[in-house]
């Protein structure tokens, strides 16, 4: 059972944390996911891809995903506490992504987020993980307040929406500098949101009027490579596609990631590779 709690909202309530033990591993690719298999859908089948390397293929993650429910076989293992901060332009879909993952609900309306925090428990590769997920506001008005979310972060998910090309451009123009300033050396994953809109005719026509097109898979992957990201993931919160996989990969990367400012390891290494349609891993 979950208890939702807002962090640092304008009414100055004390921070709290919503917890989910079962929703974290909920399979969201059922009835809604089936819609994503229509011929018009061009989204990759899986959410994220290992960033390619010359070391060949070593993708053994499929057999070691998160367990369903609580910690099977690990009752005496203390979960690893990991913090993941989610950033990106305002209205790009960050909160919808988190709501679908944590609550299994897709919000119909848009309400700007200041801060919101959730905790989920899951098992990745046999290791229990307690994942603290921090949702943040992308608007410039909250730049200084958002900086308070960065301390002790293990991984930053930097998001963009495929129907907002500027949100991808801002990863390099704004977000990577902010992340490196407040979280030097932290692991980063790039997450594409609203991937179902690539095939949306209304979106295509609207962007065409501005001489633009929806962001393609290769464009997002190229940005992830340039900033040295550990993962590139593609998701559709509305269709429930790639959401669970994105956070499983976030947990997987964060397991061995030092907190921001620590020196253990480096962000630029490459461990395995994968092709289009899977999870790009460094």
TrEMBL record:
One of its GO terms (molecular function) is GTP binding. It is a lipid-anchor. GO terms for biological process: small GTPase-mediated signal transduction. It comes from the Eukaryota. The keyword Hydrolase applies. Residues 21-40, 50-73, 257-282 are annotated as: Disordered. Pfam families: Ras (PF00071). InterPro entries: P-loop_NTPase, Small_GTP-bd, Small_GTPase, Small_GTPase_Rho. Residues 266-282 have a biased composition (Gly residues). One of its GO terms (cellular component) is plasma membrane. It is found in: Cell membrane. Gene3D superfamilies: P-loop containing nucleotide triphosphate hydrolases. Keywords: Cell membrane, GTP-binding, Hydrolase, Lipoprotein, Membrane, Methylation, Nucleotide-binding, Prenylation. NCBIfam families: small_GTP (TIGR00231). Belongs to the small GTPase superfamily. Rho family. This is P-loop containing nucleoside triphosphate hydrolase protein.
